[in-house]
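Researcher: Please predict.
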Amino acid sequence: ILYFHGGSYMAEATSNHWEFIENLVDDTGATVILPDYPLTPKYNYKDVFNMVVPLYKEIQQKVDVSNELIIMGDSAGGGLSLALLEKISQEDIKMPKKTILISPWLDVRMDNPKIEQVKEQDKKLNKEALKIAGLAYAESDGIDSYLVNPIDGDLSKINNLTIFTGTKDILNPDVHIFEKLAKEKNLKLNVKETKGAAHIWIIKRY
């Protein structure tokens, strides 16, 4: 499992992440790779992809990725996971067996009007703070890049994708937009929405 942690592209993995990974290993027996990818404000999305694409290629040399590798990510790490899929699909690199996204951040611009309807219920995330973090990650030239906003990326070669999302998460409305886009592209997408669940509630359960 190649796992990308969340943290608005500016924070390291937390104790919750490590506990979740420990339980994941215990439950599945899988080997988990959790990259310490570059963080804002010192680094931006280009620096991140200059690390994670070569990392994926290195894993590909050692593992039959199409049959053995699962990519997982939560929050910003979920957005990064999807953007990486879109990136490698354009380079004709073998795709992973499966991808699982937990409360993914699919669009750092945060301009979906339905976010306003959810934000009062979300006690964890702040829309304006996220927009600032997103701008730092995108820097001057990336705010409209699919690598920053994977909701805009090419989905034509992506398959076997599962998203976990909760209705009390301000990132949830963009999952619904992505779901519609996926259907248009005939992407095999499984959205598991939990009513009343907050951001990355799955990880917090451990």
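Model: Residues 169 and 199 are 5 Å apart (CA to CA).
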